Amino acid sequence: xxxxxxxxxxxxxxxxxxxxxxxxxxxxxxxxxxxxxxxxxxxxxxxxxxxxxxxxxxxxxxxxxxxxxxxxxxxxxxxxxxxxxxxxxxxxxxxxxxxxxxxxxxxxxxxxxxxxxxxxxxxxxxxxxxxxxxxxxxxxxxxxxxxxxxxxxxxxxxxxxxxxxxxxxxxxxxxxxxxxxxxxxxxxxxxxxxxxxxxxxxxxxxxxxxxxxxxxxxxxxxxxxxxxxxxxxxxxxxxxxxxxxxxxxxxxxxxxxxxxxxxxxxxxxxxxxxxxxxxxxxxxxxxxxxxxxxxxxxxxxxxxxxxxxxxxxxxxxxxxxxxxxxxxxxxxxxxxxxxxxxxxxxxxxxxxxxxxxxxxxxxxxxxxxxxxxxxxxxxxxxxx
Length: 384
Ligand code: ASP
Known about the structure:
By secondary structure, the chain is an alpha+beta fold. It has one domain (21-374): Glutamine Phosphoribosylpyrophosphate, subunit 1, domain 1 (4-Layer Sandwich), CATH 3.60.20.30. Helix content is 30%, strand content 19%. It contains ten helices and 14 strands. The strands form three sheets. It has an eight-stranded mixed β-sheet. A four-stranded antiparallel β-sheet has the order 9-10-11-12. Strand 13 and strand 14 (371-374) form a beta hairpin. Helix 3 packs antiparallel against helix 4, helix 4 packs antiparallel against helix 5 (181-191) and helix 9 (306-317) crosses helix 10 (321-332). It binds aspartic acid. Aspartic acid binds at residues 85, 242, 244, 262, 264-265, 274-276, 295-296, 298. Residues 85, 242, 244, 262, 264-265, 274-276, 295-296, 298 line the site of aspartic acid.
């Protein structure tokens, strides 16, 4: 894999600050609840020991800049990739070794979980579900445990999954009691004739399917609470990697699949649904084109039909995966007023992860077992 930097015009970050009402009665009640909850360490979740030998950071920093605007794949022969959200870049000099390790370990654990499925001959759909479940259970990421807070101090989670072989898809939106929304989404795909269930009906469906409900405080982390407080106070949030998670995979049968899961955006209005559960916006998979999972300003990804457009550019314009993803993420979406990124994988194993946001957390696994995680800006520069 050859790492490279592409020179791109700076893309303005247009993250919103929601003008939510300050301290609604619900928020005051939740504040009381929060103080009795046990705080989770900000960087909790990573096992101790070991260094990462797989990060191409120094190679990327030393690589010659590629011509501006040239969309080239990040890697070839990829069978599985994950992302841990787009947002502010993690800075090397401000990131403790423990924090770096926690992020890399989180991405690695997800890749390993998906790899076990693929190595055993399992489907790409199963692999992306497993990988996303690991990230949902990791409090570092904004999905499942560790999900961000809504404006009224609750948690509302969105997830979707799509299978490339028959374009079947399932999604849940605004669930409040599902520990692993991605599994609920997979059950919608497998067990119903619908694609998207929302709110109470989706929570009830998940419980009926045997997913043990969790209370809202299961999702609590001190870090996300602090972010809500900062957002309410209109202070910038440091290290605002948004933390949505996703996965794309290619199995032995050459079937593609994609999955995405999120808590949404900090301080979002109650009832707001982003792109992550919207097929064609946050998630898409079609064997003849691409498996794609997005992260970023959800409203813009919905308006720009982000992942479906990547697929359409490949299908109808004959573009390769990197050019199509580049065109949507770098050329289209910023003009609509938002930033973010995507992981995109085609049936040949060509992988690209362009993002207009300052940073994006990604990891991928190649057919021959090479595992790469990228968390710093020099490992995954914006505008590419
Ligand atoms: N796309 C997600 C949403 O808008 C958030 C993110 O990816 O950071 O809900």
